[in-house]
Amino acid sequence: MVSLQQHYCRLARSTTLILAFLLGAAPVHAQLCGEPGRDGQAISDPILNSYFTGSDDASLAAGSRELVLTRARGSYPLLPGDLALLMQVQGATISTRNDRRYGVLASHTLKAEWLRIDRVDGGRVQVKGAGAGGGLLHAYHNQPAGPDHGRARWQLVRVPQFDALTLDQDVLALPWDGFTGGVLALDVRRGLALAGHALNVDGAGLRGAPAVSLQGALGNPDDWRYSAPNPEDQALGYGHHGSKGEGIAGTPVMIDPQQPGYPEGGMARGAPATAGGGGNAMDMSHRLLASGGGGGNGQPGQAGQPQSGGGLGGHKAPPGPWLGSGGGAAARSVGTGGDGGSGGGLILIRAAAVTGPGALTLRGNPGSAAGKAGGGGGSGGTLWLDMPSDVSLSLKADVSGGAGAAGGGNGGEGQSLSADGREGFPAFPLSGAQAGFRCRPAGHWISGRLFLDNGAADPAQAFNARFDDGEQPVVARQLRLTGVGVRPQTVSTDRQGQFSLRLSEAESRGQSLRLSLTLADEERLPALPVLNRAPAKQQGKQLEWSLTATPDRHSGPLAIGLVTLPQWQGAASQSVPVGGKAVLTFRYHASVSGQVHFTSNSEAVSGLLMDRECSGDSERWQTGSSPGWNVVAGELLCVRVPVAFDGSKRTVTVIARTQPAGAPQGFSLPTQRASTQLNPAH
């Protein structure tokens, strides 16, 4: 079996060169990509991901390109060209009132995005993202708990980029440890075959609460939140209630004694955001058994003393690729057990296809029992899927919550999401570096751009079949791809005039394809655009290109440089007093640079008056040989036509003949006519 590190040596250089060629040509370069397929087709370790984070107060501003990493877990270092997921794991604020409103989610900063690693210099990592200047799209922050907020924590996850992958063992994630972990993410350019194995993140998410023996304090049996005992009080059994679980709003002291914990205390039955609440203690005489802890994102624990004392189930998680939350602990006076279960982890799959048999398991762990009281189960995790829209997933992910023990609440169900929305998978898009199957599809793909090739910024660059500075993209134009054995595809150009059409590997079997585009009435082609060294065939306004569907083949980029006719118009009609004179105005908006000649054969016209900036100030009469007027693309000028009117209805027509500068031999723009009808004024 070949290790990932060996794959680096074999693939990194060749893949980099290939992708530099493919991705460097517009419009594919508009996609942000890692190096699809660089990790090969095999694994040697059940833990595929590595995890990183910064210092406890490290904040990342939107637009940042550099991350300073101080903590790492996993076997694989970050290298340039790697794909990574940046996510805010914790960072929600809640109500901390000591009543039934405790734990209601006030706001959250949970975000995630895909990044490409561009440079690694020790702990300093430069990334490329979808934000301003190629930086981060969102802001992220690490922050210890404070008086009005719980702990906040982000992590960066290295994501392997496989060419194809057939599992020969189960794949796992390192469990969340308060800083990193809980995520299993992979990118597969071709298909992912589970081959009877599992992607398993059961219980790898946010942690369940530990139960502790406490024998009394000055709390209220009806508390929704209560301070956690310090180590000295805990040794004496001095305190009340069970601990809350870990969730998106923070980590209780009972899980991490080095942290301040939840605001106003991490004990008692109130559920902090998605985490389960702890069971309340016995009655004030400390004689009766404690109630069960609440299940994270799920059901409440059993009633204890008082009857309403069971820990509440955590609130429903906001939509998104987040870790499952922990269940609350049972409150108890003696013995062991009663712990809450940890939540399920997060699985992110980006692949051209996912096939079974096999399993995707993201279950929350069950709680444990302490006599007649028990902890709540953890909530299920999240599956996030990015696959071609026409490829179905035959496997059902298990995102069930863990069972509560001895009356503890069951954990709630997790989420199944997708990048673009599919049946049973609500849409939750993540921006940034694209999936390998999108950047480098296993099947045939065609890309290109439509633009006005008029040299708007530099007339010398007109008609060169390149998209140059100042030239405008042609947006929202439809191209259609058809062929035997493929589903017809229609795509519209985006805001940059770009388009991309992709076939699956199964659709790329050597059959003939046809790409077609219909020109608008005002559009002209200086030259027939070439695809795969063959020019388009044109019949009227219809353009067609023929090609053959081939696996791993990119046709393009297809540069479709158009020019449009100048806008040449006058008022439809104008009323003039009989025997009077009028000045008619015609407006010319240049679409290309060159010369334009204006003439009129109307009897009422004795000459043409040029108004270069349409300001009302005439420049000179145009007479005799009709000299050409130099224009540049985008320029607006007016032609003013003095006429004498004898009362007879007549139409005044002015002709514009445009001669583009630098046009290919044989290309010309048609003569344009604009007319105004003269009517007697009443």
From TrEMBL:
Upper lineage: Bacteria, Pseudomonadati, Pseudomonadota, Gammaproteobacteria, Oceanospirillales
Signal peptide limits: 1-30
Bias kind Polar residues: ranges: 668-682
Keywords, ordered alphabetically: Signal
Sequence segments annotated as region (Disordered): 256-336, 402-423, 661-682
Biased composition (Gly residues): 291-314, 323-336, 402-414
The protein's name in its UniProt record: Carboxypeptidase regulatory-like domain-containing protein
Record keyword Protein biosynthesis present: no
Domain of life: Bacteria
Keyword GTP-binding: no
